[in-house]
UniProtKB/TrEMBL annotation:
Entry protein name: Sec-independent protein translocase protein TatA
Spans traversing the lipid bilayer: 6-24
Function: Part of the twin-arginine translocation (Tat) system that transports large folded proteins containing a characteristic twin-arginine motif in their signal peptide across membranes. TatA could form the protein-conducting channel of the Tat system.
Similarity comment text for this entry: Belongs to the TatA/E family.
Chief subcellular location: membrane
Intracellular or extracellular location(s): Cell membrane
The organism's place on the tree of life at top rank: Bacteria
Source organism phylogeny: Bacteria, Bacillati, Actinomycetota, Actinomycetes, Kitasatosporales
Assembly and oligomerization: The Tat system comprises two distinct complexes: a TatABC complex, containing multiple copies of TatA, TatB and TatC subunits, and a separate TatA complex, containing only TatA subunits. Substrates initially bind to the TatABC complex, which probably triggers association of the separate TatA complex to form the active translocon.
Residue ranges of the region described as Disordered: 45-81
Length: 81
């Protein structure tokens, strides 16, 4: 039954209904906005997955990273001295 939902005939009917509801002129803009929203959602969910829980420290190659005290920032401050 679910396999029958995505037949070409059904997809054509959905496309025709979408054109009637939104109009052919607004469909590209609507699709573009939907694409932007999906990219934003994907970026935000990735950022949430990458976020370190509070109280934990991130390490890279055995060095503890703490906000501005990254190895690159420490090297730059050492070079400035």
């Amino acid at each position: 039954m679910i396999r029958d939902l995505f037949t070409p005939t059904h997809l054509l009917i959905v496309a025709v209904v979408a054109m009637v509801l939104f109009g052919a002129k607004r469909l590209p803009d609507t699709a573009r906005q939907l694409g932007k929203s999906m990219r934003i959602l994907k970026a935000e969910t990735k950022a949430l997955k990458d976020e370190t829980p509070p109280g934990e420290q991130r390490t890279v190659a055995g060095e503890v990273l703490d906000g501005a005290n990254t190895p690159a920032a420490e090297r730059q401050s050492a070079e400035a001295r």
